[in-house]
Structure of Protein PrgH:
Amino acid sequence: MQTTATDPCVMRVFNGPMAGCEFVLAQGPTRVLVGPLQTQDPGTGPGIGEQVLCVPFEQDNCSFEVVAPDPDTHSVRLRPLQPASATWQHWPLQQQRQIGGLQLAFRLSSQEWALQQPVVASIARKKLSVSLRLASVVLALGLLVASVGVWSLPDRTASAQQRSVSALVSAQAQVLQGRDQLVYVLVDSQREAAWNRQVLMRQQLGSVVVAVMAQEQQRLEQQLLAVEPGLPIRLLDLNDPQRPLLVLAGNTLEPGLKERLEQQLLRDAPYAGHLAFRVQDDRVSVEQALAGLRQIGVPFQRSDQAGGIALRIEGNLQDSQLEATRRFIRRFEQQWGSRFVHFSIVLQDDPLKGLSHQAGEQGYIKTSPASWQFQSSNHR
């Protein structure tokens, strides 16, 4: 097949974090930097008309330069960047080979993948003895049985796509493989979600879902309530997304209900493999909330409501009290949830803040055009 200017060359990676990823090469030379991300350095920079690709890989010294095939050719030209004296090599299309520790193959964008084994490797295989062939068959069957067992587990080995996504997203993100062949990226904030979506979009990686943890928690809770209206959910803990924890109010939980809830959650969260349950007494959570606020020493008001209680924290709090209160509320909601005990903080501003002040023995604060408030016992 002849190449044209509209038929670019495609490079595919077969191992490492980017296994399964494909890159479209521009016409002319392309510099491919291979190695750990922190060590990749384009050096003197690309030349005129030269593009640069970065491929994360655990080994170094695999970087190379490649030139897409010219018309009437069936191979690309490739040259390692190290050593500098390395010569150009011809790499046939549709043939998987290795440079350093990185396994690659090239094809035209108009072609489908139809990989061919090198001739030398084919001849070598024909020279294998019967005993070695039998041993290979036995070993292959053993590996097949083991792989079927591993892939049948919910926490199976990460797929090539999952590894590729993990190498690109932020370190704080949780990357999970779903049973629906999608990869899920769970993050803590909208800002982090937007950043990771941009990274994945630039790399043209599809079949990836980016979700904020709090929104994912609310979505799953609503799905469970749709199946079981009135379910006394107190918390759906996604700290371990593959094994979520559902906290319910009450004393006991029927086995049939547990089974229905787990089946529903596993349908709505393909990345989860098991749903754990915990039943708690609402009275205990209320006692913990009251004890915590009293220990901090902040004023609050309690208001009993249908289906929960409201604790209103108010007053002119010091900065240390305010920070301690917010930390306590975060810890409490992580353990007990926020569906039964509701906290609110109402700060009272200083009524004299911003008013003019006169210093001196009889210093005063002017509260209105005709009123003055003296700090002493005399008022005018």
In short: The CA atoms of residues 62 and 210 lie 32 Å apart. The two ends are 101 Å apart (CA to CA). The chain has eight helices and 21 strands. Residues 119-130, 148-157, 376-380 have pLDDT under 50 and may be disordered.
